[in-house]
Design goal:
Helix content: 25-40%
CATH architecture of the largest domain: 3-Layer(bba) Sandwich
Bound molecules: flavin-adenine dinucleotide
Number of helices: 10
CATH superfamily of the largest domain: FAD/NAD(P)-binding domain
Mean pLDDT: 96
Number of strands: 18
Order of helices and strands: HEHEEHEHEHEEHEEEEHEEEEHEEEHH
Number of domains: 2
CATH class of the largest domain: Alpha Beta
CATH topology of the largest domain: FAD/NAD(P)-binding domain
Distance between the termini: 42 Å
């Protein structure tokens, strides 16, 4: 595998960029793996990467029914942050952000992490009160968060219209929040996992599990049967369908979540901004596009597209806060199928079937969690003991009523 460096880039440029080695090579399935991961999104790839590099489990395969990063990991709006309310969530998401902070160097792949700040807006006195409580809780969790006045917001985001239908009364910023390049996260982890010996098998769909005596022993796939010591599932919006193959019922609802981008313009917005009330969030990509999103479509669906109504709602909300963007053309729109749990927190760890592990329930916010999701699941699979950071996120919490209700922290309501 070529090392990515300035020197190598210059050398290859002189040769017309020929002979770059592929970032990872297509593998054909072997008869047996110690661990098989289902789903070649960020979480599946990160789990395989950490299994091989950190926890000493080398004989690992990732099975992806389409192409690497073709699911939500390649479709999201790239926001990373750790400003969560409950201590369990804060510890987990901040572990993720800290891993992101060093992952480009570790992977030798530029994830384009841009910690430009993540700003949440408040539009009423009541919202200001709740926001102050959140800022205090987040700070007590040891995470950076600071309240901003309207004047400070205007200074940071000059194009914002503070006197919108619901005037902006204040906000809070997480300075370490921001964005990272979504495709790069998938590609960098795939390259890192491949380099550590993981087989990445694309166009290979899971079609069933081999289970005997309450224990998973292998998987059936569109490319044949594979025996496995352990199986990890990280298939986001398809989690219920896949779990059903093992006779498991998950409390997951699948819905389409849309995103859209305008034509690229010069840099005008260097903070990621969200308004839960006006119901939209926006940032500017490194290519100059204004990237926006809002709530999920209001019906359940496995279709990776969305309805017109949501596009109109998102654009209308953007223009309330940024009227000047009305001059821009909307260039593209797409959707992903998100996996929403009852408390909008993830479901991570063991299942009632021995050696079968689950990672799902990210809803609209699992991109920021990819490094920590991968690290903690890899630990759990390698040690057969749940990682302390995800103890509270087990499937059984819904039976115990021990919910971790982060719906207020999940950006826009869904
Ligand atoms: C429009 C949009 C905007 C978002 N914005 C943000 C954001 O700003 N910040 C944030 O933190 N999160 C965001 N998210 C959520 C985030 O993208 C996801 O939570 C995260 O990418 C989930 O990663 P994953 O690896 O679990 O799933 P995915 O990336 O979806 O990967 C799952 C993979 O499993 C594969 N698969 C499914 N069934 C099978 C099968 N039977 N066999 C084999 N493979 C299978 C799929 O093809 C897919 O590639 C957004 C999501 C969307 C859709």
């Amino acid at each position: 595998m070529s090392h990515y460096s300035f020197f190598n880039l210059a050398k290859k440029a002189l040769g017309g960029h020929k002979n770059w080695a592929p970032a990872w090579r297509r593998a054909t399935p072997q008869k047996h793996y110690d661990v098989v991961i289902i789903g070649g999104g960020g979480h599946g790839l990160a789990t395989a990467y950490y299994l091989a590099t950190k926890y000493g489990v080398g004989n690992v395969a990732v099975l992806e029914k389409g192409w690497v990063g073709g699911g939500n990991t390649g479709r999201n709006t790239q926001v990373v942050r750790s400003n969560y309310f409950y201590p369990e969530s804060a510890a987990f998401y901040d572990h993720s952000l800290k891993l992101y902070e060093s992952l480009s160097r570790e992977l030798n792949f530029n994830l384009m992490l841009s910690q430009r700040g993540h700003l949440s807006l408040a539009h009423s006195e009541h919202e200001m009160e709740i926001m102050r409580r959140n800022v205090n809780a987040i700070s007590l969790n040891g995470i950076d968060a600071r309240e901003l006045s309207p004047a400070e917001i205007k200074k940071r985001v000059p194009l914002i219209n503070l006197n919108a239908r619901y005037p902006v009364l204040g906000g809070f910023v997480q300075p370490r929040g921001g964005i990272a390049r979504h495709d790069a996260v998938a590609w960098g982890l795939a390259r890192g996992a491949y380099n550590a010996g993981v087989d990445i098998i694309e166009n290979c769909a899971l079609t069933g599990f081999d289970i005997s005596g309450g224990r998973v022993t292998g998987v059936q796939t569109s490319k044949g049967a594979i025996s496995a010591g352990s199986v990890g599932v990280a298939v986001a919006g398809h989690s219920s369908e896949v779990a059903r193959m093992a006779d498991l019922k998950l409390p997951i609802t699948s819905m389409s979540l849309q995103a859209m981008v305008t034509e690229p313009i010069k840099p005008v917005l260097d903070t990621a901004v969200i308004s839960p009330t006006i119901h939209m969030y926006v940032s500017q990509s490194d290519r100059g596009e204004i990237v926006l999103g809002g709530g999920a479509d209001v019906y359940n669906s496995y279709a990776q597209r969305g309805g017109m109504r949501t596009i109109e709602d998102n654009v209308a909300a953007l223009l309330e806060l940024f009227p000047r963007f009305s001059r821009l053309k909307l260039m593209r729109q797409w959707a992903g199928v998100v996996d929403i749990s009852p408390d909008t927190s993830p479901i991570l760890g063991k299942t009632p079937i021995d050696n079968l592990y689950i990672n799902c329930g990210w809803g609209t916010g699992g991109f920021k969690a990819i490094p920590a999701g991968g690290d903690t699941m890899a630990y759990t699979i390698a040690h057969k003991t749940v990682h302390p950071l995800i103890n509270a996120f087990d499937l059984q919490r819904f039976e115990r009523g021990a919910l971790i209700d982060e719906s207020a922290a999940s950006g826009v309501a869904h």
